[in-house]
Amino acid sequence: MAKDLANSKPKNLKLKKSSGPIEQFSIGRIFIHIILLLWASTTIFPLIWVLNNSFKERNTILLDSFSLVKEPVWTNYITAFTRMNIGRAYINSLIISGTVVVGVMLFGGLASYILSRYNFKGKLAVHSLVMAALLFPAFATIVPVFTMLNKVGLTNTHIGVILPQIAGNLAFAITIMVGFMSTIPLELEEAAVVEGCGPWKIFSRIIVPISKPSFATVAIFTFLWSYNDLFLQKIIIRKKEIRPICALLDTIRSQYGTDYGLMCASVILVVVPVLIVYLFLQKYIIKGLTAGAVKG
């Protein structure tokens, strides 16, 4: 009997496969992806166009700027490094932007720790002033800033650009780091106090290591803003020897504006390093901006 029942089982029985991921795609999601692809293409295409034309001669660009390069010409990049001295401009930008990043992280971190952990008279007023500082653009303060720098003899110097940039980025840095440090449990600091740690040890050995995402976010944004700050650099610095990369690019545009190959090569040399840094560190930006958004 059991043998007959075994033989009576359907031989062509097949299990139905799950179509989980396929069912998740909908018309709305496909439409959103199409919009994002079109948006990305409008951003990526100009960069590819500039990169392609940087390997062409000026006459070739004037005849057909949209054709793909067949035989790359390196003359534009050689001219940018030899005649334009872009290498020196890179060093100037790294000196300015690197110092600004260190200053913003140091002063912003200390101010954020005090505002997030200590209660004192006028704390709300100080915090409100920091938030209000985000509303003032650099254009509104450039006249008094330039006047003060000129009186103390800091124009045409790196420090004359570094100090205003540190002051201009502190409000953003404090806003980001206060939101993150406020989520750190107080029990960690209480345990450190029991072990005999003072405020500086608590800040350097507990707060800073835990707050690495917020510090990384502040450092990346500060570096990008300082590196791309043409307005302040062009007004404060007039000497060619200490001119940063963005100010040099503006000079190339005014003097060699018709040499489109040299212009494209110069733009690539300015943009690509920042783009590479952002692509490798974008996860820290997202983590630092979202980590302090929700408490608990």
Structure overview:
The chain has 296 residues and is mainly alpha-helical. The protein folds into two domains: 27-73, no CATH class; 82-291, MetI-like fold (Orthogonal Bundle). It is 74% helix and 0% strand. It contains 15 helices and no strands. Helix 9 (158-181) runs antiparallel to helix 12 (212-227) and helix 12 (212-227) runs antiparallel to helix 15. The longest helix is centred in the middle third of the chain and has 32 residues, at 86-117.
In short:
Keywords: Cell membrane, Membrane, Transmembrane, Transmembrane helix, Transport. This protein is mainly α and 296 residues long.
Brief descriptors of the model:
single chain; 2 domains; globular; 296 residues; MetI-like fold; mainly alpha
